[in-house]
């Protein structure tokens, strides 16, 4: 698949339709959960049938939604006190336009392949923007939207909310409630329980809301993060074996993205060649079934199929 890049530009937030001036630079401190998550661009691919929305309409909606979701137009950096933060400086989102001299139906892969990497901007090297997206138009009039955002800035829920709001802004509809940013009072540790051994024993056995509260207590206390330091627990490797990670995207409203010509006909994660990292997404069939994207080595594929289809 030969993808011809036509243009690349920054789309900046448009406050009050581009009339109001941009607010002052702000800093959102990273939460403890932000600091230990994947430091990578998460990429997803949408496919829209013809007649696809115009680039001008999509860009105008993007400028409008960035004014409400400023973090997606900012950069990762530091606050004046030296803390890791999202800098709300309105740098903008990177928008790339591209074209393919072929029909989407002939090119669309049935599973994530390296070809998908051509449907969103190049993610190699040090990136300056939080959001990078690519609009790829096919000969048949179909449109592929390759969207990537930094996982440190937004998780799946925040990203899907942004995408739905982007579609609503493109259609001239209210975008809904603004996002809630992290602040110092959001995740506060409780007083040290010091019978610490018993508390740890009880909480490790219950990986639920109480478990995460316990994690906050330790990580944000002087004895935890400041003295010992925290290493990221979610470090992406090429191979997770013997472990497996299952990421459920079943409740994210990705199929609600509508630029004015209807919902996408297809949605899938991009190409993530990480063995053992599974993605569960709602099937494009719309019948309530689930599509599972399971990266495994070729020499393990047959054994994996036997495990999946075994009735024992």
UniProtKB/TrEMBL annotation:
It holds the Pfam family Transferase. InterPro entries: CAT-like_dom_sf, Plant_Fungal_Acyltransferase. One of its GO terms (molecular function) is hydroxycinnamoyltransferase activity. Keywords: Acyltransferase, Transferase. Gene3D superfamilies: Chloramphenicol acetyltransferase-like domain. Belongs to the plant acyltransferase family. This is Uncharacterized protein.
